[in-house]
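STRUCTURE REQUEST FORM
Protein name: Cysteine ase inhibitor B-like
Source organism: Olea europaea subsp. europaea
Requested output: structure tokens
Priority: standard
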Amino acid sequence: MAKASFFLIPLFLLFILALFSTRAATIEGLVGGRTMVKDVKTNKELQDLGKYCVEEYNRKLQHTARITKLLTFSQVVEAEKQVVSGIKYYLKISATTYSGAPKLFDAVVVVKPWVDTKELLNFAPSPSTKIKQFW
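Status: completed
Returned output:
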């Protein structure tokens, strides 16, 4: 009887662990997967992050191409986040071009709060043309 309980306890604990991990994955999405961020327009941290992305893009553009026709940040209109080695944000940013036309851009930025760093990985015009739905 002692041998049976010796094997049943670890199996029971493994079952409980599996049950809770799959339940958490279905509630919050897959572990390591992207999740939508709610209330993007009122989230000051995300809006500041979007502004950082535009400023960093402008800085790199001025440095590499010596272009003075820069973008002006308007707002982050959509966001997803993914837990990696830090938090990776996928942002859809509305910005105004030098000609005054609003345009959407997709940005990917990684934030590591424990070392107080941000790194812009990608910033490009968005293939989405639905800019009016965000206003």
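Reviewer notes: The chain has two helices and five strands. The domain at 34-127 is CATH 3.10.450.10 (Nuclear Transport Factor 2; Chain: A,).
Form closed.
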